[in-house]
Design brief:
Blueprint: H1 2-32, H2 38-64, H3 66-88, H4 95-121
């Protein structure tokens, strides 16, 4: 029973990363889609991503643990927020593209952290 519970938490890390990346990208796109300056959009997107990641961290920490939430969501909030802000400043780009990028980036961050942790544990 305990092994199945741990496996569900490992799978949940990927879903949390993907969801958080998409959510950050969506909010950044909705707020900054009319921003004409890419540099300002990048800075504001990073700030929005960090602010949005904080309540997600607080909500998810009791369920999946602090280490599995703090590091990935910090990276996702900043990285996806900045890149989604820059993407949102491009004229004529679809919101679906920005959200898909956020989902992909969040899943990539979760995957990289998962394999890095696995490598560190096996050393």
């Amino acid at each position: 029973m305990e092994k199945a519970y741990k496996m569900n938490l490992k799978i949940a890390d990927f879903f949390i990363g993907t969801f958080a990346g998409g959510l950050v990208a969506l909010v950044v796109y909705l707020v900054l889609s009319t921003q004409p300056n890419m540099l300002i959009a990048m800075v504001l997107g990073g700030l929005i991503g960090m602010v949005l990641a904080l309540p997600l961290k607080i909500l998810l920490m009791p369920f999946v643990g602090a280490f599995e939430v703090m590091i990935p969501l910090g990276i996702i909030g900043m990285g996806v927020g900045m890149t989604a802000g820059m993407l949102s400043a491009i004229p004529g780009i679809s919101g679906y593209v920005v959200i898909a990028w956020g989902n992909l980036a969040g899943c990539m961050v979760a995957t990289i952290i998962y394999f890095a942790n696995k490598r560190l544990v096996n050393q």
